[in-house]
Amino acid sequence: MAAHSVAAAHATIAASAGAPTPASSTPSERLGFRLSSLAGRGLRSPLLHARLGFRLSSLAGRGLRSPLPPRRGASSTPAASASRRRQQRVRAAAVETLEGQAATGALLEKSVNTIRFLAIDAVEKANSGHPGLPMGCAPMGHILYDEVMRYNPKNPYWFNRDRFVLSAGHGCMLQYALLHLAGYDAVREEDLKQFRQWGSRTPGHPENFETPGVEVTTGPLGQGIANAVGLALAEKHLAARFNKPDSEIVDHYTYCILGDGCQMEGIANEACSLAGHWGLGKLIAFYDDNHISIDGDTEIAFTEDVSARFDALGWHTIWVKNGNDGYDEIRAAIKEAKAVTDKPTLIKVTTTIGFGSPNKANSYSVHGSALGTKEVEATRENLGWPYEPFFVPEDVKSHWSRHVPQGAAFESDWNAKLAEYEKKYPEDAATLKSIVSGELPAGWVDALPKYTPESPADATRNLSQQCLNALAKVVPGFLGGSADLASSNMTLLKMFGDFQKDTPEERNVRFGVREHGMGAICNGIALHSPGLIPYCATFFVFTDYMRGAMRISALSEAGVIYVMTHDSIGLGEDGPTHQPIEHLVSFRAMPNILMFRPADGNETAGAYKIAVLNRKRPSVLALSRQKLPQLPGTSIEGVEKGGYIVSDNSTGNKPDLIVMGTGSELEIAAKAADELRKEGKTVRVVSFVSWELFDEQSDEYKESVLPAAVTARVSIEAGSTLGWQKYVGSQGKAIGIDKFGASAPAGKIYQEYGITAENVIATAKSL
Q: What's CA 729's distance to the chain center, in Å?
């Protein structure tokens, strides 16, 4: 079709939509519209095809790139206008490659198409996956991994590497293709061929525990960008603590690609709001603005001006209008982003999902399923790709091969720099190396407080604060905060100030009322370096707001410590909206997470000891608002077993009755046992502070605590009874709460719900 005909068609369509006729000089700008945007404007697809004589998607790879100007309006705020003026000045300047040795011309196109077809071929072979994003994002992925990022393919865990997060994790074949080309051992050709198969290192979404080179586990939309905020926070914090005027020993960027789906999720806004507030200048996010989600064009549900929102959040924003082959635009945007050091940067990159597919590009059909044999062949023809599946042309392979020696040189240079740093600043170097390695200082456990029955009664949330402050003095990577409840969760580190934009060396992190973002940011901190141990806090019931992030903690082996106070009906008057019921059992059902409910100071200290040691398993501590006594028989060592005997007047491992409890109800169990013993019964009291740890003990140990011959068993816990049957057995009884709580003083609620020693005694006698 002649260029003037395209322009005429666009003028007609633009006029019908009430838009001005563009005076663009390139074919793609003359076209200037998205096919989907015409729906509802009197021009349905068949009619449009008849008028234009082609499908919009068929232009991919034929000199007419789509889409270009998006349907969402550009921001008109002064800040946005200034941002656009700055980017225009940068674009007017000659664009320099950031690391040199950049591919150009035919080699660049071939390299980008290699990425596309590795993704296409892997998805096709698996008959499962999401080819659209890799096809559209290949240019920005290429520039990041080939020209911009510093990394060592042979040591994916080199400390000072740049981090990359694919928040739109469904498009993971983009990252696998890039890791493969860059020379990572984790993603060889055979791994690409095993995409989404049992036991492969190329699972259906990026998983840090499966694929070295993948920093965090993404898939649930929005989690990745929030993780990226955590990674960038960690870099800024460590840089502030350890960099010197003559040595920037911590100096790396965090890059992220996120899509429309991530932008729609509330967690992304929570985390990005904090990133702007903290001024995370080394966080650069690429927004894949392809306007397609599973249900179709995002016009049906998502029409906001994303750039304007990010301007308001305190980000620097840039718009790359042609993400399909605007390589110099992408390079210039990255250069501009790096020049802005006091703000994170969002680069909106307008792309075509499924770029190059003649019949499926720019549509939801390329989002989440294989192209199909015929469309793969059509795409090969359209992009001039004559190669067999999974083939990497020799010139492309040769070009990318430099990253192995280059990465080794990056790490070697940094190691030499660290050696010089160590000579000048030995104490700081030792501390930094412990954070990098995860090695805990000798004797750190001795810092945890110890308690006796004579120690004053206190709420376990207060005892938790004593532990937190004790640990912060001896564990250099310990940091964290609360979701606007620090004075109630008791989580402030008294010897440190607040981590803020201008005081990033401090270790109290103020998350505001952003539970979900808080959890995901802490995942990023934990996965940045083995010696960073983040904790975060809120009321236990509000784990409902952050459960998605907590599940990713468990899945991705991020050892976050969740400090959850107000753990039961014991919080009293705030009522059922704030009183957890089903929460304990819900986390006990979650794999790879430790659920602790300590009864007093020694058990709280024991829970923290285990939590700090478990760097690949997150921990949840459910802590009381009300005061509890320091019980005889509890111990830090006992907590390590999960369940252990607190008191027992029987002999030969044959008590008449076993009473089990957790948290505030362990005191009730002990009181009931004392009364029953007065009546001549032999009673064993067992603390079940962590079911998971108890279940991991040997059969011999479990038999020593819960002998199979003793069937008279009672448990008491101010929460759901679900799950207790495996410990009380078929002939025992579980006392708990299987309905919502109530608003009243705590003592009254306990009495009305039967969470009392009297009920334990009556239940025991009924067995």
A: 39
260 marked ligand binding residue:
yes
Nearest CA among 716, 686, 690 for reference residue 704 = 686
The DSSP secondary-structure symbol of 645 reads E
pLDDT at 100: 55
SS3 418: helix
Which of the following is catalytic: 329, 515, 557, 665? 515
The reply to whether 689 and 603 lie within a common domain is no
- Boundary-marking domain end, from 406, 432, 453: 406
Does some domain include residue 517?
A: yes
Query: What Cα–Cα distance (Å) separates residue 41 from each residue in 18, 130, 246, 297, 601?
Result: 10, 30, 62, 15, 68
No. of helices (H) and no. of strands (E), the chain:
30, 21
Query: What is the spatial distance between Cα 484 and Cα 486, in angstroms, rounded to a whole number?
Result: 6
Alpha-carbon distance of 561 to 617, in angstroms, equals: 9
Q: Which residues contact 497 (CB under 8 A, 6 or more apart)?
A: 503, 506, 508
Distance CA 166, CA 223 (A): 10
Least confident segment among 97-106, 266-275, 428-437, 656-665: 97-106
CA distance 52 to 702: 76
Is residue 220 a known part of a binding site? yes
Residue 434 lies in a domain: no
Burial string for 499-525 (b: 16+ CB within 10 Å, else e) reads: beeeebebbbbebeebbbbbbbbbbbb
CA 622 to chain centre: 22
Q: Contact at 8 Å (CB) between 290 and 136?
A: yes
Q: How far apart are CA 654 and CA 708, in angstroms?
A: 10
Whose CA is closest to 685, among 709, 722, 725, 656? 656
pLDDT grade for 101, boundaries at 50, 70 and 90: confident
- 249 and 137, same structural domain? yes
Q: What is the DSSP letter of 10?
A: H
Query: What digits encode the pLDDT tens for the residues 341-397?
Result: 999 999 999 999 999 999 999 999 999 999 999 999 999 999 999 999 999 999 999
To the question of whether residue 290 is assigned a binding role by annotation, the answer is yes
Is 270 catalytic? The answer is: no
547 and 660 inside one domain:
no
Q: Residue 221, annotated ligand binder?
A: yes
Q: Express as a percent the part of the chain with pLDDT over 70.
A: 87
Centroid of chain to Cα 683: 46
Residue 261 assigned to a binding site? yes
Task: Read off the amino acid at residue 641.
Answer: K
Query: What is the rounded distance in angstroms from the CA atom of residue 434 to the CA atom of residue 414?
Result: 17
564 and 618 fall within a common domain: yes
Question: Any known ligand binding at 578?
Answer: yes
Q: Are residues 654 and 759 in the same domain?
A: yes
In the chain, the percentage of residues whose pLDDT exceeds 90 is: 87
Three-state secondary structure along 109-157? HHHHHHHHHHHHHHHHHHCCCCCHHHHHHHHHHHHHHHHHCCCCCCCCC
Residues 681, 660 contacting (CB under 8 angstroms): no
| 239 falls within a domain | yes
- CATH number of the domain that 484 lies in? 3.40.50.970
**Is 291 marked as binding a ligand?**
no
pLDDT tens column, 113-160: 999 999 999 999 999 999 999 999 999 999 999 999 999 999 999 999
Say how far apart CA 175 and CA 142 lie, in whole Å.
10
Domain of 375? 105-406
Helix (H, G, I), strand (E, B) or coil at 51: helix
Residue type, 152: N
Q: Is there a domain that residue 528 lies in?
A: yes
Residue 94 gets which letter from DSSP?
A: P
Q: Which residues contact 316 (CB under 8 A, 6 or more apart)?
A: 83, 337, 340, 343, 344, 345, 346
